[in-house]
Fold these 2 entries.
Entry 1:
Amino acid sequence: HVPIIQALFEQVSGPTKLRPLGLMEVLGWTGAALNRVNRTAFFQKFDQGLAVQYFYEPFLEAFDPELRKELGVWYTPPEIVQYMVARVDTALREELGIADGLADPKVYVLDPCCGTGAYLVEVLRRIEGTLRAQGDDALVAAEIKRAARERVFGFELLPAPFVVAHLQMGLLLHRLGAPFDDETNERAAIFLTNALTGWDLANEPKTMLMFPELQQERDAAEHVKRDVPILVILGNPPYNGFAGLAVEEERVLSNAYRVTKRAPAPHGQGLNDLYVRFFRMAERRITEQTGQGIVCFISNYSWLDGLSFTGMRERYLEAFDSIWIDCLNGDKYKTGKVTPEGLPDPSVFSTPFNPEGIQVGTAIATMVRRAGHSGAEQVQFRQLWGKTKRAQLIESLEQSNDLLYHTTIPPLGIGLPFMPTVVAADYLTWPLLPTLFPVSFPGVKTSRDDVVVDIDRERLIQRMKQYFDPQISHEETRRLVPGAMDSTARFQAEATRDYLLKRGFLSQNIIRYCYRPFDVRWLYWEPETKLLDEKRSEYKPHVFEGNVFLFTTGRTRKGAIEPGITVKQLTDLNYMDSGARGTPLYLTPSEGSLFRQSIPNLGEPAQQYLADVDATEQELLYHCLCTLHSSVYRTEHTDALRSNWPRIPLPASNEALLHSATLGRQIAALLDPEAAAPGVTAGNIRPELRSIGGVARAGGASINATAGDLEVTAGWGHGGNGNIVMPGKGQAVSRAYSSDEQAAFAAEGAEARLGMVTYDVYLNERAYWRNIPRGVWEYTIGGYQVMKKWLSYREKGVLGRSLTLDEVREVTAMARRIAAILLLEPELDVSYEAVKAATYE
């Protein structure tokens, strides 16, 4: 019943085609296997609507799991399909006044990424239910077939699911007693086409395709795209796709979302995600061609509050009259797939064949545009959590929307997020950090850490000298420095090395490098080629003695909002968060500039403010750091900080600014592992810190470095694929504080800030760092535990040696620095409250 598939089959089924391709024997095996299938049992499974579970998804997962991910092929669970089709049916009746919903002959439906046809089959079942409820006569089956042929459309780009979709549709009609007629070549209205192109009228001649049947398929699909008054677009758009498939018409689809009228301009790369193009295609088709209708998609939920999607959200509030969001959570990054109560929160896409599901959170968006369009000012939103989310969706179909959803009015100042937010009114009056310090840079992306980064300077120099040695062949280099000779799409290994051999090793480019918080390493900064993936040539000139960078993020996928960090060296892209940027205090003048010395990185509002309060740019930067480290500030503005760059309250007086800046300088000193912190890591150590992080050996004996006591073998990390270091469980034993430890804390009231229990953290079965308070051990930056992350890279199997005495002491210093930061929080909060009470107008 599908001419293009029939034509393709005829093209390759003849011996003259098969023999040169070497397929005769393979298809012989295939035929023998198919002849052993119990056809009755097999087609019963299809008849139950479980074709994907029993065939397509497990096949593709076994055949090529990476291809499956690249194509964005995810089986949509039946509960999701049933819920979305039912929501659309209800919205047609209640919002658009179409009494028969999907069963109305004037309702044209499109699934633009229909896969194996689950949504199309469910739409026909819904129509069948309505018709039978109205009077179960002998015409119902014929009505269903007419709908399948004339007004329930599916587009699919991949041939395999396209065939399965036709098979499922044919089986449904066969069950109803109205099969497609072989004599008249009846078929379902499912077309092999790219849903993202062909919507605009084209004057130029059409490209000639390989088979006449393929041209007929294209023409039939384009008729639907251009001439049919589609009223409903629903489905599960792919999250990824082949970049090479994007033609100009497809690439520019998301351009409409790259500009805003009122909301802050979009930031980041999120609009490049493939699902955004499907949203734009659907929105444009409903709003600009039909004029009314419904869009109902399940997708990645990043667009609900991400900085990249401010224009997308602004447009939907203008283009639609009612918007409902069913937030299904299940996000690995933001919530760790855990509910607010700490229970498991898996992806709704988890199946027996794919228990992990997808990693990002998902949401169902149902958006309605009425004929008398006026726009939307609010969004109806609800959260679903836990293992029973799919069942909850089905159960909620019997409940009133008023009971299920709560109304949220997206605040303009933080980008119109559709996620519910709590934002203090005064917060939106404070300037954004980029307004004060306009220039910032992302960190360096190395991609070949095992080549250009090392904890040991001499080891890095030796490795790079081998790489640059013209006497060493490419083959020998592959053995000595494997990662340097692995080509990628962006890095041609042999050609790169051939070029660099002509220039030679640059010893001055071995520089200090902030790899992770409290983990400063050595980097070979390659200035010309992709040996260093993204070298950030625009960033490096501003790294000089006396300058400092404040790193923070404009949006985080993680649940916790963490403070900013100051650094002085070149920094890794993932030092804090891949979306973080470093804001320098000073800028090196560009070549040809009138300035000969560094200039402050200040916007005009910051310059005016500093003139009014008679203060310096250093004091302003350290005040920003102090503010970001206030736990009260981060708690009060969590939603806003999760979706945009921080806004900073400016003290109205010079005295308040100087006080805040002084605290900020203390924080900066504690964050700098390469500078001594008096009272914390050097000099007369404060009593409440003195007992933290000391090194001990089981039985009370002294550490014996030559006996392996400084080897990290407790299982903190191990090598993964592609030279990635994977964290391990390690050995951290929790216990109560000793009487001496507790006495020291009680004197300063430290116990409440640091945690009510402590840990002994083991290097190996004998040696350990004693008394690492829970708050210190669990302290995170960038979403991972700082101390545990550091240890994972020092496991002997990863590092290749024991720790030095200095490195062991480095852990002690790290623990005390973090403890000192936590103990400073009450003062930071008091300072923030004082600033908030009297801000600069």
Entry 2:
Amino acid sequence: MVGHYFAVALLNFRKAPFATFANVAVLGLGLAAFIAAYAVIGFWDRAERHFANADRTFVISSRIEQAGNVVLRETAATNSYAASYLRTDYPQIEAVARAVSLGPNVPVAAGDRAMRLTAVGVGPEFLDIFDLAFAAGDPRGALREPRSVVLTRQTAQSLFGTEDPLGHVVQFGTAIDATVTGVVDDIPEPSHFGRSTTASMHFDLLTSMDVVDRYRNNSGAGPENWFGIVGPTYLLLPADGSLTARTLAGDLDGFVARHMPAEIAKFASLQLRLVPLPRMLALDADAALLGGDRSIVALLWMLGGLVLVVACVNYASLAAARASRRVHEVGVRKAIGAGAADVLRQHLLEAGLMTAAALLLGVLGVRAIAPAVRASAGIDLDMALSFEPGPVVFLAVLAVTVTLLAGAYPAFVLARVRPIFALRAPRLRVGRKVFLSLLVGVQFAAANVLLITTIVVYLQNQEVRRMGRALAADPLVVIENSSDAGTLVDSDTLHNELLRLPRVRGVTETARALLPSQSLPLARSSDAGESPRPVNEYQISYEYPSVVGQAVLAGRVFERGRDEPGRSRIVVNRAFVGAFGLGSPERAVGAIVYVPKSYMMSIGVGDAAQPREIIGVLADKSFDPLDIGPAMYRLSDQRIFTIVKIERDDAAAALADIDALWKRLAPAIAVQRWFADELFDEQHSESFRVGYVFTALGMFAMLIATVGLFAMAQVIAARRVREIGVRKVLGAATTEIVAMLLRSFSMPVVVASVGAWPIALIVLRHYLDRYVSAIHLDAVPFVAGSAIVVVIAWLAVGAQTLRAARAAPADVLRQE
């Protein structure tokens, strides 16, 4: 019997090759989207499993709220003090280690070889937690001695060639020497130490923590800043279960209450959470792609599932359309003894065969794009599609589920057909018209949500790119000149020498490249009862507004000989004036705002509210599309980045002059510079990737839904063929018939498209909330998306509609 089912299935596939191919292709697209989401999530779920202690290792995450506002969304990092207090409070913990990234451009030299590398400082127990694969050196003591460094094999080869690096000295900048005590092989993927785009702690070398302190000039003196989040804190819980993750997680609120002073707690709340190490990479992705507090895993499942649902509904529509042509076959089979169960099994088997073919197509499609994803994002999709029990079970369950979801409706409808009605005519109405219209409507509702989202994401990304292009109008070159990096290039010397270059039009300095240095709370009065609001603080040098092109609206900016680096005088932007109710820019000049007492105590620089006098107001300008809000600028002596305004018409020559000057001032250190627009694009590349994902999914869903319209066209044309013949006999023109049929096709599409608007609005509100400079969300994207859907629907069914309208009445009515 099963062989007969297969024979009939293959015969029907041969009789309708185009319909079979369309079903397999569109279902394959939907499955590819869902399988790709599974593969990405599976890659993250496998993170850190290669470490022997992964199941007992946890990371402390932090979240900070102030006056009901989230200052820091959940991030897998803590302050510098939590580790030592955890060791004291919970002596059962087997190992505790901090890690602090020094950044991706640390100047490191060995002899005459100099490079810019990614360095991470770690605590002495780091290697007790992570069993790194040592190619040379003793892992038990490699980082326990002061000024010790462990290199990756690739870094060791770059710095020392074939020479044994153990015992040799590497130099950080020009001031710090460290001895090589070990060489490790590359970290197996996936890992938050790896090279995927969301990995937060990738490294070329590891150093002992004292190197970090010397590199950053950390004296260790002063009060504890509980809100200074610097890097992850790793915990290895005991194997004997004397301290469980559940117990520790439940006591973290009490831990904060015991150690954070009450006055500091009044300023803001610090929430600590225990995160399993294997969850670390996904948490990094949440922070990198969605800003934290939102799950990228949930988003991927939702988007992949949405496309798959569209594909399944499309399959059901196409199968229902084909079913109207197979009722005669079903009638004959039932007349000679086949039961409803036989017909049901036959059609579910056919659905299963097409699902299997589509599943194979989807897996092959994901494997085809895997190299590109691995190269661009560092995510290995093949890893989650291996022949292991987990992926095999997932694909099997997916195949069964899709078969039932997609094939059940037409199978059950055909199984219920009565032979007497099936044999009366070659075609009968199969299924209810309302239900078939609902199937098409669901497809286009989902497709329209993705299409509208794609339009808005595109417009928002264009706004971001517009900000980046504006930076190129008056080219700005950003040079990293951190004294921490040991360049020994005096910032004043560099400033003055740059101004001597013929193609340089302005020079200034900042503490952070184009971005705020920190978020600082400010209030209108010194009253402790007034709730402060967070403000972006930019630490700048003289001439900053003129160099970056920020207009002065009122008052003045910092002037040489008149203002010295300090905290008492500030310049604010126009948004600050509005946020604090200061009236006009002119009225804001001379106003006093205050840093709250609780914050001053939290950073240990005083026990009273500190006043800040506004001396000037600037126009709103930001290099961060996620954060254009109230901003204050203060004169700072932290001049880590030098910003150079150069001539637009001869940028290449200006860069050559800058490079030559740097070579003369710091011959042993490679210059680290970027154009401001390049730096901008790099900082916001993740936003663009989100746009690409929505675009791809939107195209997938629209393609699937468009193919589904062929089913609707076949069903409606088949059902209304007699009506069309009668109308034509009575004098109806072909154009009138076409208009009538297009209205029938358009109605479920239009209703579904408009019905999708509230869902799209909710999704887009969440997306645009990330941007302080979000585009204005009006009706245009919604109307445009629905119009595009309707036009695509007309194009998709136009040929079928025209063919039905041109049918000769004699050919249609001779069967009656």
